[in-house]
Design brief:
By secondary structure, this protein is α/β, with parallel strands linked by helices. It is about 45% helix and about 10% strand. An eight-stranded parallel β-sheet has the order 4-13-12-11-10-7-6-5. Strands 1-14-15 form a three-stranded antiparallel β-sheet. Helix 2 (about 25-60) packs across helix 3 and helix 17 packs across helix 19 (about 480-505). It starts with a helix and ends in a 9-residue tail after the last helix. This is FMN-binding glutamate synthase family protein.
């Protein structure tokens, strides 16, 4: 088909134009690569400026345009600020629209929790576990329909064997007595108690609700390392007084341990036991700092520290530096507390260090009344990721090791064991008690009872439900009387579930649980009991020579006069 003469003329004129300006195609191409990104990156900013300019004359004559004009000005100002700031590269390239990314990042935990996760995603706690805690705390139905959602054939699946002849469900709450021969005021403790959470990490209303719930339910409330505040005192619930490396609440102005202050606190009737904190599961071997900006007058009073100054929590104690020194310190505190039970809490680290404490017990004849084993999976308000993820022994391994060590040196009968670390359900308790625990502590379980929604904002002071914040506006959302009832209900319903579980296993008390009652599926698909899966020592086996070369080696390295290797 012949080409139209007009088309020939247009093509010829374009060719002459290009010949006259030979660099024009390259220039147009370059402008395209410049303009397209500009359009994508700065469209919102340019649009806000254009809108502000266009709406200015209209807004001067008609009030109906004030709102859109004001919005355009605000957006244009925001875009200008984004372009001029130097902190965020994203905002310099994408003014205004870059904030969408930060908005979505800020609500990522909520998006995942409400829309993406399944009921059995387990990190940190599954929706099923949280729902169970919510329902039990609210005294609504804790029953689930249509069978388990867990893969019962998956490696690591665990269960408890039931009996063909189950026992009647126990009517009385399960308790155990803590206090050795040197203890003049033994304490009958519930098998489920509130784990250590400080005033400062938790709000005043949260502490009030926890302690009121503990008093009503007859269980203990560990005050945490932040001291015995007026909020712990107000309702009179049983308190476990924690003495940590900062000696908060019982310290001198220069941060040393105060005998007088401790004796005054320890002899209050509300204080039932004394717990020396050696380490915490979520960040063992790590101290902490509460910034001066967060040290309010009430926190300063409770901790015995200066107002408006950084609150330093050292990584180690200054009152002792050896296993013998620890046991002598325990005996000293027991005397100052007039015979109340005194023990210590730790997350297990080097095996020979705990075995060195066992050697010191044998040599001195001094024993703690109890030991609380905290697992590395335990929670914290804030901690370095490396410590949270990769430091310390998990609860199951740590608890089994401590129980084994005490059995192996014939001291288990003198010392009661508590277990703490991600304990929510009655099965969590049964599993821990089968491995040697005499009772369990739960922190996050009781936080769920208070209304915690696992928003993962504990370290920001912006807890949306008023549990982990010192913001008076945020914490007013937590109504003490309502949440105290939920704390009490969560404890009662969980203990009832444990009673039903124990009865189904053909037992009268969880103290009769053994490793043979709990089973697990291995990576090869085989089934074995905890008794078969783990090595348990015979009484006195460490003294006569443990079969395990690892334990024999650790025992040989342990020394009673120092935590260092022999």
């Amino acid at each position: 088909m012949p080409i139209n003469p007009l088309a020939w003329r247009i093509i010829a004129s374009q060719r002459r134009f290009v010949e006259r300006f030979p660099s024009l195609p390259e220039t147009i191409t370059s402008m395209r690569y410049l303009l397209l990104p500009f359009t994508a990156r700065y469209m919102a900013y340019a649009g806000a400026i254009i809108a502000a300019i266009a709406l200015l004359p209209l807004s001067l004559t008609d009030p109906v345009y004030w709102l859109p004009f004001g919005s355009a000005v605000i957006l244009a100002s925001l875009g200008t600020r984004d372009l001029l700031q130097t902190r965020h590269s994203l905002l310099r390239n994408y003014p205004i629209v870059g904030h969408i990314r930060f908005l979505l990042e800020g609500i990522r935990p909520e998006i995942r929790q409400y829309f993406a996760e399944s009921d059995i995603d387990t990190q940190p706690f599954s929706r099923s576990e949280r729902t169970l805690a919510f329902e039990r705390s609210k005294k609504t139905s804790d029953k689930f329909p249509f069978g388990t959602e867990l893969d019962v054939n998956a490696p690591s699946f665990e269960w408890i064997n039931h009996s063909i002849a189950p026992k009647p469900v126990a009517a009385e709450p399960f308790r155990t007595t803590v206090g050795g021969p040197g203890c003049l005021q033994p304490y009958s403790i519930s098998v489920l108690n509130i784990s250590a959470m400080s005033f400062g990490a938790l709000s005043a209303n949260a502490i009030l609700a926890l302690n009121l719930g503990a008093r009503r339910g007859g269980f203990a409330h560990d005050a945490g390392e932040g001291g015995f505040s007026r909020y712990h005192r107000e309702h009179g619930g049983d308190i476990i007084l924690q003495v940590a490396s900062g000696y908060f609440g019982c310290r001198t102005p220069d941060g040393r341990f105060s005998i007088e202050r401790f004796a005054e606190l320890a002899n209050e009737p509300q204080i039932k036991m004394i717990e020396i904190k050696l380490s915490q599961g979520a960040k063992p071997g790590h101290g902490g700092v509460l910034p001066a900006s967060k040290v309010s007058a009430e926190i300063a009073l409770a901790r015995g520290i200066a107002l408006g100054r950084d609150c330093i929590s050292p990584a180690r104690h200054s009152e002792f530096s050896s296993p013998r020194g620890l046991l002598e310190y325990i005996e000293r505190l027991r005397q100052l507390a007039r015979g109340k039970p005194v023990g210590f809490k730790l997350c297990v680290g080097h095996p020979w260090e705990f075995l060195s404490i066992c050697k010191a017990m044998l040599e001195t004849g001094l024993y703690p009344d109890f030991i609380v084993v905290d697992g590395a999976e335990g929670g914290t308000g804030a901690g370095p990721l490396e410590f949270i993820d990769h430091v310390g022994m998990p609860l199951r391994d740590g608890l089994m090791f401590v129980h084994n060590a005490l059995v192996g040196v014939n001291l288990r009968q003198h010392v009661k064991l508590g277990a703490s670390g991600k304990i929510i359900t009655a099965f969590d308790m049964a599993r821990a008690m089968a491995l040697g625990a005499d009772w369990c502590n739960s922190a996050r379980g009781f936080m769920f009872a208070l209304g915690c929604i696992q928003s993962l904002r504990c370290h920001t002071d912006q807890c949306p439900v008023g549990v982990a914040t010192q913001d008076p506006i945020r914490q007013r959302a937590l109504v003490v009387s309502e949440k105290a009832s939920r704390v009490e209900s969560f404890h009662r319903e969980t203990i009832l579930a444990l009673a039903e579980l124990i009865a189904a296993a053909g037992l009268e008390h969880p103290a009769k649980l053994t490793p043979g009652h709990i089973l697990k599926r291995t990576a090869l698909g085989q089934v074995e009991t905890f008794e078969q899966a783990y090595d348990f020592l015979e009484p006195g086996e460490l003294l006569s020579g443990a079969k395990s070369p690892i334990l024999r080696d650790a025992w040989s390295k342990a020394r009673s006069d120092a935590f260092s290797l022999a």
